[in-house]
Amino acid sequence: MIREARKAKGLTLEDAARTAGIGRSTLSKIENNQTRPSFDIIRRIMQTLELKTPQLFLQSAKTDISGRRDYTRAGQGEIQKTPTYTHELLCNELTSKSMVPYISTVTAREISEYDDWVRHNGEEFMFVLSGELTLVTEHYRPLHMKAGDSVYYDARMGHGLISTSKDDAKVLWVSLGL
């Protein structure tokens, strides 16, 4: 995904690495799935290539591998924080996945906490695990949701979540086609 995004922006490996403030060899290793970068490096690459966070959770190389498996023990997913969410990436060791599963704690309490709409390619399924929240989208009225509720939507449509319960809401997200 990163190599394709870099090339689509017309950036050389050297230019993208310099702009992101990382070494050329580091970026090359990331593009070739030879290393797992820190969240800070992912954030810098994301800013350089103007990508949204969920797009970086997927690797892009398509393969015909079958019989693959990955698991994540409860509470052991890779944690990635943003100003509005704390994401726990699930089953994150496999590359070339079609979907990205993750649990998110929604820390935003007001839609104004978002710099802009969250928007990216693909579709998303979301299931509320605990708490209550409001899904705010571009083309629909806000949708109040509570534990056990679910929604499926086109992720190209601007969207954002705000917790409305006393404790931060938790959701299970599955992003497809990023």
UniProtKB/TrEMBL annotation:
Protein keywords: DNA-binding
Record carries keyword DNA-binding: yes
DNA-binding found in the keyword field: yes
GO cellular component: cytosol
Protein name stated in the entry: Helix-turn-helix domain-containing protein
Source organism: Aliiroseovarius halocynthiae
Domain called HTH cro/C1-type: residue spans: 2-56
Highest taxon of source: Bacteria
GO molecular function, one term: DNA binding
Pfam families: Cupin_2, HTH_3
InterPro entries cross-referenced by the UniProt entry: Cro/C1-type_HTH, Cupin_2, Lambda_DNA-bd_dom_sf, RmlC-like_jellyroll, RmlC_Cupin_sf, TransReg_Diox_bact_type
